[in-house]
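Listing S7. Sequence submitted for prediction.
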Amino acid sequence: MTEAPFMKFKMPHTLTLLFFLMVAALIATWIIPQGQFDSEIVNGREVVVPGTFEVVDDGELLSPITLFTAIPRAFAAAQDIIFFLFIIGGVLAVIRKTGAIDALLGRLLENLGGKPGTLIFVTVFVFALASSAMGASAEYIPFVLILAALCRTMNMDTMTAVGIVIVGYGIGYGAAAFNQYTVVVAQGVAGLPTYSGWEVRMGILLPFVLIGTHHIYSYSRKVQLDPSKSLMAGITPPDAGAPPKSYPKLTFAHVSILVSFILALGIAVWGIATRGWYLTELGAAFLVLGVVAAMIGRVGPSLMAREFVVGAKELTETALLVGVARGIALIMEDGQILHTIVHGLSVPLGTVGPELAGVGMMIMQTILNLFVPSGSGQAFVTMPLMAPLSDLLGVSRQIAVQAFLFGDGFANMIVPTNAVLMGILGMAGVPYDKWFRFCMPLLLKLLAFAAICMVAMVMFGYS
């Protein structure tokens, strides 16, 4: 029997998708009327003035060569973010080499192995907190099989273990407070002070963790009481063996490194709030953290350099996505259609009031995440539209950033274009369709609560 054509379709690489979006943006400049809003400076930030949109009649059409000239220009325009990502990747690799992260998570798993409810809550919370604070995601992959082995010894299944990892990671990104890959990038594009509004985002992290924990625990209890109800029934996962008899010991050095990370983050927040720091100073702060962590962890200079290079290499793809994504906005800006699109989006959203408009922006970001799963890349694609759109809708740009965070983070748990998600599922031997059945109800719960949060943020003037 011949396989149906649609069964052979494979989602293109994200970089390919972004280039296709550049092509679409160029074609759009030939079709969409050029237009412009008046702008004004408010609190040191340029914002569009509602009601001032006018069509531009004498604009020039862009040449196809713009597709290729826009890319190097985009890399130059996004260079501060790109180099900051390289620094973060390198420093986190050095911290991982010290064993501090492995020791912390190993200690948690070891002490909570006999308490399934506590294990699920604490590990989801720790994963979410690490993702919220430092953008951790792929770092969790090595713990999947350890968790799977532990869950099986407690009469739970591999789906529970995968749920703990992915739900923690997704909630951490959705309610991110300091995530360098999403918060810093989105606020930079939106013209907001870096890390501004972090108190609110930290405040909503725990409720989302509780929603995720309840979903996972309810499922795990059903499996414990009746193994036939497991979504993994009849599926043999990869043999992870028995749980390790010992984990890396959490030493004073490891604790000191973790405290150093918290201290560095605190200093960065203080500098941004009181000294006007931005990515240059943030990068310097994290470089100092990397050196301190290497010294405490007794990682020699040469090994530190090698690990730093490895960590930076791991973010090369992300850096490329950021650069190409910036090219999409550049083409729309050059073709003078960016404001036309913003005006078009503002018309339907403007009819439902600012509270529901914020929810609408979140839904739009959730859908877009299917095509651009990279958080940094999606920020550069969508925030040039969403930031001025928020001005027109009468909501703060902080609301636009939060809509992006919710849409990006929660959708990451289910979109098949997310490499981290598919890597975790592949390692654990969990079929995507089974994961979809497990995760989709949770995603709807999270988005429903996120919509309530968006309405409340608009009502209370979150900015």
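Caption to Listing S7: primary sequence and predicted structure tokens for the chain studied. The CA atoms of residues 399 and 457 lie 7 Å apart. The mean pLDDT is 82.
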